[in-house]
């Protein structure tokens, strides 16, 4: 931590608990078992679209991050986020395909983007316009504590976002101010999506992709999912682990919810590869789907409106999966 209490090193965020230690042993044992039996390589060779995401890439994580991407690159084809999204919708993916994204708009991802440039990989950075370019550290700290639930970290500013766009990366929306979208009213959820889009259009010229904060089903809802597409976003990403296997028939954007696997530069390389292989082994052809109970709302014709009846939309968030 620095003198303001901002995290500057991966250890500033690491959990040291009995549960975490046990979890690591289980992953360690299972990853070696899969590697020795050849099942890891078999899983990773399967055609699919696999989204990986991170939050931060501190100085001490840069080499681990580079090693992870380089290892994946040996057997996978990296595409841009927009290309990956279209492949999921089309369904006809014929090789192991990966793309990288980052949540929360943290400054350390700028150096990650440069490492990616060296490897010829382009990513998508999901930002919250309410905090982009905030220079007052007390404000960033309060935002981190109340909205991100982790120690404060420096954030990207708009010129750094523009710089990444110029280098071929993409900037996506992560809501306006990172609320728990499962807790807010339908009106607030729509405002978060709309303000974020307006800011990103005004500051950067446009935005296509959205990822919701915290990424679990309980942190989102059917009305919010519908609003994202009604507002013209092209895709919605969760942080539910998984990947997208080939399909015979295409789907509409609003029929699909993207799965993403979390990796970290500070985790051992074989743990990161293990998480990818585990998702492949568990994946089914319907893993692009929303919770079934959300579908009537998401597919309904009526345009989302702040004056629309609220119903029980967001309270349904935890109902399925
Ligand atoms: Zn987030």
What is this entry, summarized?
With 321 residues, the protein is an alpha/beta fold. 40% of the residues lie in helices and 10% in strands.
Domain module count: 1
Largest sheet: 6 strands, parallel
Distinct small-molecule ligands in the complex: zinc ion
Helix content: 40-55%
Uncertain runs with pLDDT below 50, 5 residues or more? Answer: 308-321
How many strand elements?
8
Strand content: 5-15%
The gyration radius over C-alpha positions equals 19 Å
Structural class: alpha/beta
On the 0 to 100 scale, the average pLDDT is 92
**What's the helix count?**
11
CATH H level: which superfamily?
Glycoside hydrolase/deacetylase
CATH architecture name? Alpha-Beta Barrel
Secondary-structure element sequence?
HHEHEHEHEHHEHEHEEHH
The CATH class designation is Alpha Beta
Say what the CATH topology is: TIM Barrel
Distance between the termini: 37 Å
Shape: globular
What does this molecule look like?
This protein has 321 residues and is of the alpha/beta class. The chain has a single domain (43-300), classed as Glycoside hydrolase/deacetylase (TIM Barrel, Alpha-Beta Barrel), CATH 3.20.20. 40% of the residues lie in helices and 10% in strands. The chain is built from eleven helices and eight strands. The strands form two sheets. Strands 1, 2, 3, 4, 5 and 8 form a six-stranded parallel beta sheet that branches. Helix 9 links the parallel strand 6 (209-211) and strand 7. Helix 1 (18-37) crosses helix 10 (269-282), helix 3 packs parallel to helix 5 and helix 8 runs parallel beside helix 9. The protein is globular and about 50 Å long. It starts with 17 loop residues before the first helix and ends in a 22-residue tail after the last helix. Residues 308-321 have low confidence and may be disordered. It binds zinc ion.
